[in-house]
Write a structure and sequence with these properties.
The complex is a heterodimer of chains A (about 240) and B (about 400). Chain A is of the alpha/beta class and about 240 residues long. Chain A has 7 helices and 10 strands. Chain B is about 55% helix and about 20% strand. Chain B is built from 12 helices and 12 strands. Chain B is elongated and about 100 Å long. The chains are: A alpha/beta (about 240), B alpha+beta (about 400).
Amino acid sequence: MIRLEKISRTYQLGGQPVHALVDVDEEVADGEHVAIMGPSGSGKSTLLYLLGCLDRPDSGSYQLGGRDVARLSDEELTGVRRDLIGFVFQSFHLVPRLTAAANVELPMVFAAVDRKERRERVTAALGAVGLADRMDHRPDQLSGGERQRVALARAMVMGPRLLLADEPTGNLDTTSGRQILDLLDRLNEKDGVTLVVVTHDPSVAARADRVIVLVDGHVARRLAGADVARTANLFAPATPS
Amino acid sequence: MTTPDLLRFAFGALSGHRLRTFLSLLGMAIGVAAVVTLTALGEGAQRYVIDQFASIGTNLLIIIPGKSETTGIPGIGAAAHDLTLQDSMMISRAIPEAEKVAPMVVGTESVAHGARRRQVVIAGTTREFLEVRKLAMARGEFLPAEEIARGRPVVVLGPKVASELFGAEEAVGQVVRIGGWRMRVIGVLAHRGVQLGMDLDDLALVPVATGMRMFDRRSLFRIMVQVRGTASLETAKNKVVELLAERHGEEDVTVLTQDAVLATFSQILAVLTLAVGAIAAISLSVAGIGIMNVMLVSVSERTREVGLLRAVGVGRRQVLAVFLTEAALLSAAGGLLGLGVGFAAVRVMVQLFPALPARPPLWAVFASFGLSMVIGILFGLLPARRAARLDPVLALSSH
């Protein structure tokens, strides 16, 4: 699904160059569930945005589904995001004036999906996250967990093969968080959606097949999800295996 | 994305901020309303003037002494000749196209009856004046058809003069004093009002010869000629000029046709209407800046929304289209509101001043609405481009 080779990304912050990612090599198989961990400023968000084609690397190659996307134009990347990628954010990013149904419908509106089909897919997507009875509620009438479930329904409504989640439980209580994680697991296991989750929560990372730990823009270590709980000094620099 | 989807999305975004939306389109509404109202006024003034001329008839020649262009060599004494009663009589005798000829001499004098006295315009003329100026009598007779040079001491009063001097008493048959003259009132004009700047109600008419003696004049103020309906105005005009040139030895009169005067007035008023409309249109561009302002605020408030749209696969051009559509909707709504307000204002004006046939010209309606749309989109371009060019990553993480 994903093949990164020598990916580097440097950006300017207050006139100082920040090396967010340095020579990252990584592969994610189709249908895999991967967690990215790391202290703040380690480059994990930058990596997620690069994977999501919202940003382009300064150097290196990025193959997504067999296609080199590192040098695509803005317009082409937009098409890749629309057709292949779904996003879930820590702060939900729902449009406040739109109902749950309209928020889920949004990607399809701009992708010129037929109205009748839009309605059917919205109903199905909200049903799948257990919010069939909240269709006409606006975000401010929904709980945090419900909002994130709406966001998840929106991420999945275009049928992406890659789902990227940036701290999906960061703003949620434990119960709602677990609901979201269960939904993510189900999408990954039952529907075969490739899932990449950025988190600093070991219990979230533990659900992944594989965990990548980033420190200062480098991949510091790779380990199995099941090993997260047992590893002390997770973010300590270690020789890559 | 289909057009209805685009419109629905843009409309949804605007209706989220009702007050702000309303205030920003208010500027556009005021601008459009101003254009509509002011051009309606200009158009009304133009039609008022045209109506005035039409009520006199357009087959009229007005001969005034003097040439409007400079002639003669100074020092050799090429002074313009006077227009005389003889000129007037020759025109009616020698030019078959001249149906009615009314010579005119004008002055002001006090008209008195008993203790009442009123300063009015006295016009000396002939019986033909009645038809040439399309006047009507309320009571009595108009000036007698007599030998033009005789000049009997009779007077026809305008209705206002009659009522001021005589009140409810019958004026016809009474004697008034005009200056040092005793004149018998033989008729009272029907109400007519102001026509071409002359109050035909506040006027006294005397035979032309009487008038000339009264004001001690040998020359006429002007001669009015009504041309036969079937004859060409231009031919008649040329014949008059030729005849008077022959009599005076040189071309020293100016002959105005109603058409020419009308055209001049029309032109002046049309230019005025255009100018006032253009000034009002400037307020439209000010309104455009208002829309730009609101759109800029909207873009910065919705940065996260733009980021999200970009993340779910919405292209730059689509983002541009969304914000341009919002700007266009704002200006269209403002324009429509302005048209409504403008038409309502014109209605009120017509109610208040029925004499002024104010009506917004079609071109102004289309131009102001079209301009408001163009301006809205033009000024919406900057905010829309700003939104379209946002970096998705930065937009998503903004607060």
